[in-house]
């Protein structure tokens, strides 16, 4: 089993976090996570048709990791490292379902509990998301450290050029 220093990545991700706080700090990261999941699924479909690149999947996987890190930060969920198993069960590969289930959970927290998230529940959800994320990377033979490094390099470059906010990969 390999350990990934999530805390270090999260600190680096926070250096590039420039997003609006809309009512509650978790709203933007949740919406971003769901949006990036869609972009990741599109990159996968493009790759399956043979006209997409593995690098495209890595870029989108990096963006998903960035939103997971910032969501955990906003929820005050402290994760120091992620243990990346050497193998996974077939049921672990459901990153899309895990993230969508979390979005549904968050909706209910806002609706039924006025946005009062409980730390224990959120730690459990973030752990499940990270586990599914690692299983996804494993299935695509992607290294979490390489994905994280590429993501931070991309975002630092954008920040230095003053184009961190906006849309599109080519900014």
Number of helices: 6
Share of residues in helices = 55-70%
Number of strands: 2
Q: Tell me, what's the shape?
A: globular
The overall average pLDDT, rounded, is 86
Query: What sequence of helices (H) and strands (E) makes up the elements?
Result: EHHHEHHH
Radius of gyration, in Å, reads: 16 Å
Widest sheet: strand ordering: 1-2
Biggest pleated-sheet summary: 2 strands, antiparallel
What's the SSE blueprint?
Layout (H helix, E strand, L loop, with lengths): L1 E3 L1 H10 L11 H22 L5 H21 L7 E3 L10 H19 L5 H21 L4 H17 L11
Helix pairs in contact: 1-3, 1-6, 2-3, 2-4, 3-5, 3-6, 4-5
Word description of this protein:
There is one protein chain. By secondary structure, this protein is mainly α. Helix content is 64%, strand content 4%. The protein has six helices and two strands; from the N terminus they run E-H-H-H-E-H-H-H. The protein is globular, with a radius of gyration of 16 Å.
How would you summarize what this structure contains?
By secondary structure, the chain is mostly helical. It has helices spanning 6-15, 27-48, 54-74, 95-113, 119-139, 144-160; strands spanning 2-4, 82-84.
Annotation keywords:
single chain, 171 residues, mainly alpha, globular
